[in-house]
Amino acid sequence: MVKDWLITGGCGYIGTSLIKKIIELDSNSNIRVLDNLSVGKEDDLSEVCNFFRKNVSELGRCQGVELIVGDIRNSDDCIMASKDVEIIVHLAANTGVGPSVENPRLDMVTNVIGTFNMLEAARLNDIKSFIFASSGAPVGEVEPPIHEELAACPVSPYGASKLAGEGYCSAYFRTFGINTVSLRFGNVYGPRSKHKSSVIAKFIKQALSGESCEIYGDGNQTRDFVYIGDLINAILKASELKKGGEIFQIATSCERTISEVASLLKQQLKGYKIDMKVKNTEKRLGDVRRNYSDITKAREMLGWVASTEIESGIEKTIDYFISEASGRNLV
Asked: pTM for the whole thing?
């Protein structure tokens, strides 16, 4: 297993979940985090490690867990944070279709220039392994299931920026020999998702607050929901891959409507005597109608499949949010 990691966006949902798993597997691993703390915070990192050093004055070989407060849009921050690590897991991003439609320039600068900066840092520091967190969004509006051979035609600025990241990953493998792996995450959900604004986390938070859960359009749009534990296992599998320039769909191959997921949430929340109210609003710009993945390539090349059924995953996610809310005396 890799010993020296750099995780961008490591204070966020996926980052802290990955750090927790790495430490569980090998307590001697060294993990450096580069994060601007715009979403995830130091407290989130503290929840998954007993101790971390912050803004290390003399960067050499990483020791334990280190937090560098910096920004992927700053090339100097990227180069500095990348020194003396074996692998970069690039999670930091402007995430989601909605924010990209509201501010396409911010989305481009963060996701395109930020990814370029990290790849350049890998090249300059002679780091040979690079995992890029992508999405199904680059493919756009196609007849699913989505697979890696489909021509990309993004619908949203977010999809375009992630496609650019995949393109740069391909170029840096073929030109500079960096073993880049792009993982197209499905809709990730699960414990620790308190900062997430995607469907499952958002609906649970709204239900706990007594708000109506908003479904864009008729609710028959489909997504592929992948549990955080399964996703983390995919990242770890990808970190062991010796071949670069690859793209993998990381999802479940199960197509579920937003209304179906809302019904599952509503049913399970009843067990906590929480009445989840739902309302339909106008369709959101940039959303695709159907989206689910074919994970054949991930199964064959990474030896990875998702193993968590959505009912079980939702139960664990609700338990997490109920526990969090109870601790803050919100319910």
From this structure: 0.94
